[in-house]
Amino acid sequence: MKKGLFLTIILGAILLQLSCSESEELKPADNPELPDRGYFMGVYPNPGSGQTEEEAFSQASAFSEFVPIAFDDKPFYELPEMLSGSFGERYVTELTRENGMFPVICLSFFDDSIRLMKPPGMENATLSSPSWKARYRDAALDVVRISKPLYLAVGKDVNLWYERYGSGTGGPDDFSEFVELYEEIYDSIKGLSPSTIVFPVFAREIPDQGREVDLSVLGLFDYRKIDILVFTSHPCVIESLTSPSDLPDDYYSSAFRYFPACDFGLVDLAWPSSDSTGGEKGQADFLLDVATRLTRERGLQLKLLGWADLHDRDGQLPVGLLTSDGDEKQAFEVWMELFSASGNP
Predict the structure, then answer these.
(1) In this predicted model, what pLDDT tens digit does every residue of 82-100 receive, in sequence order?
(2) Exposed, middle or buried, 196 (CB in 10 Å: 0-12/13-18/19+)?
(3) Is the pTM of this model over 0.85?
(4) HSE of 167 in the Cβ direction (CA atoms, 13 Å)?
(5) CA 201 → CA 14, 229, 342, distances in Å?
(6) Which end of the chain is more exposed for a tag (fewer CB within 10 A), N or C?
């Protein structure tokens, strides 16, 4: 056989193998069994006083099935490299999966000031810039390839951008640009990994304005491209609320007037155990209401129930299930009752 023909055959075989590998469907690395209670429970295992991260994640694994991995201070364009290196090995593999939990990974596209995260060289980019959109889309696909999460949030509190910049204005940062990009990313991820559960995370409140969000933003999305409707929720920021009992029964279910029935999730839930918000009892009452009166008793198909922090953080509102010293609060007792429940508590 001539050398040129041999090399051509070998090259063709390599290209065929690469083509088959790229077209092969990915499957999430996580396949958790749904608990008898009907939904997964998760908390971010921030360490208490004198505790290591290893100890906090191990502790949480006794009463938690998932860990939210958002890291809002990490730009989305750095996440693929981070997740493929020691960062991903530590937080996704060692601390989360090796403790029997699964990650819920989130790619934020704006910072705490609700300004676009801009990769180096894109300082003048806007939400409508094709180069920026391509970078965000590629980052989402890379995260799927690298970490293979079962749950992937494409954007966190995305409607805060809507509240700030509006939709239908025709401006370069119009929220409709994100809606279009999200739906494009959704299709791309489903083509790569059909079993990945893809969704944006919406905020239920506007913290710096002490009010609820405009839920009509949900009507801007194609509901067929949101696998689960997920909110972050800190209702204690609403100025008119003094007690969890002040929350109307349809506080979450009212969202479904804009959305056909689908699975529902709550992550980054928080209610402080401060005296002004009812103390430990107020915090515990809120958690129980979230799992019963405000969700399943309204017919919602609750699938994710995620609390913000395991421990209180020094200098911040005490929203942890435990104090910074590790003492159990009343909310932790409710958490354990829910965790151990079969069906409705």
Answers:
(1) 999 999 999 999 999 999 9
(2) buried
(3) yes
(4) 19
(5) 41, 7, 28
(6) N
